[in-house]
Amino acid sequence: MQRLLRGLVAALALLAGLLTVDAAPAAADLPYGPYTCANGYVWREAVPGDLVCVTPTQRDTTRGENALGPARREPNGGAWGPDTCKSGYVWRETRPSDHVCVPPASRDRARVDNSLAPYTILLPTATPTNGIAVNEVRSGYPYHTQLYTTSSFTPNKRVQFYSYDPNWPGTGHSILTLLGDVPTDAYGHLQSLTNFYGGWNITYLSCYRVATAGWLTARVVIVDQGTGIISSTNGELTAPWC
Questions:
Q1: How many Cα atoms sit within 13 Å of 8 on the Cβ side?
Q2: CA 44 → CA 63, 64, 113, distances in Å?
Q3: Do residues 43 and 56 make contact, with C-beta atoms less than 8 angstroms apart?
Q4: Residue 209 backbone phi and psi in degrees, to 5
Q5: How far is it, in rounded angstroms, from Cα 212 to Cα 163?
Q6: Which domains does the chain have, with CATH numbers?
Q7: Integer angstrom CA distances of residue 135 from 47, 59, 129, 131, 151
Q8: Does 8 score more than 50 pLDDT?
Q9: Using one digit for the tens of pLDDT, what is the confidence trace for 199-242?
Q10: Which of 39, 150, 167, 235 is the most exposed place for a label (fewest CB within 10 A)?
Q11: For all residues of the chain together, what is the average pLDDT?
């Protein structure tokens, strides 16, 4: 089941990475702050501070799960402490602290919603850095770009890195391009093959892996699948140029 779910999430992320979204708004056009949802979406609000954007129907479902959660716990606790769920239920885990007991399908849905969070928010690059930095090292000519980070994320989950172009040439639309989908270890570090410049390798980019306009640069957007929290970098990624 875990392997099937990871495959589904990866397929959805890849499909989303091939789609354009509406033309990017200005940061001043965000009526609810940096996590303002795209048209047709609302905050999920599974737990306090949960600003993942979902459909109104999904938010209603989430509120219903919150109301039913206490009745789905073992009244005397169990192997997983006082929040142990009754048979047939699991923790929803929209983030590690979310111990609301739900059917397994609801947990799967929450994971997919977390993974697709950058596609349901109005302006991904308006989000704060949340202490995350992505660095690049360029080499050769035509050059290649190595991306790495020294930041940590939710342990034993996955982190997705995207480039963001607000005005992809010839379309008038913004576009997100998936750069890397990397698992984390028990410490929240990326499970990369190399320790790179004191950090962890994200991806090795070659020609035309990043869709960009202008001076071949793009902002980097990060989504921690363990929480659905979106972050963006202050710096810009330089696209490999061939």
A1: 12
A2: 9, 12, 9
A3: no
A4: -80, -15
A5: 9
A6: 53-115 (no CATH), 125-238 (2.60.40)
A7: 32, 36, 13, 13, 11
A8: no
A9: 888 877 655 455 444 445 678 899 999 999 999 987 667 655 54
A10: 39
A11: 82
Q: CA angle, corner 218, sides to 216 and 221, nearest 5?
A: 160
pLDDT tens for 21-49 read 455 555 557 899 999 999 999 999 999 99
DSSP 238: E
**Structural tokens at position 61:** 């479902």
Tokens at 2, concatenated? 């875990």
| 129 neighbors 219 (Cβ within 8 angstroms) | no
CB 98 within 8 A of CB 92: yes
- Please report, as a single letter, which amino acid is at residue 124: P
Q: Which residues, 6 or more positions from 156, have their beta carbon under 8 angstroms from its beta carbon?
A: 183, 184, 185, 186, 226
d(CA 117, CA 93): 15
> CA angle, 180 as apex, 178 and 181 as ends, to 5°?
100
Backbone angles phi, psi at 63, to 5 degrees: -65, -40
Q: Is the full-model pTM beyond 0.85?
A: no
User: 208: closest CA among 159, 142, 149?
Assistant: 142
Does position 141 have pLDDT exceeding 80, yes or no? Answer: no
pLDDT band at residue 18 under the 50/70/90 scheme: very low
E strand or H helix that includes residue 144: strand 144-149
DSSP string, 156-205: TSEEEEEEEESS-TTTS-EEEEEEEEEEB-TTS-B--S-EETTEEEEEEE
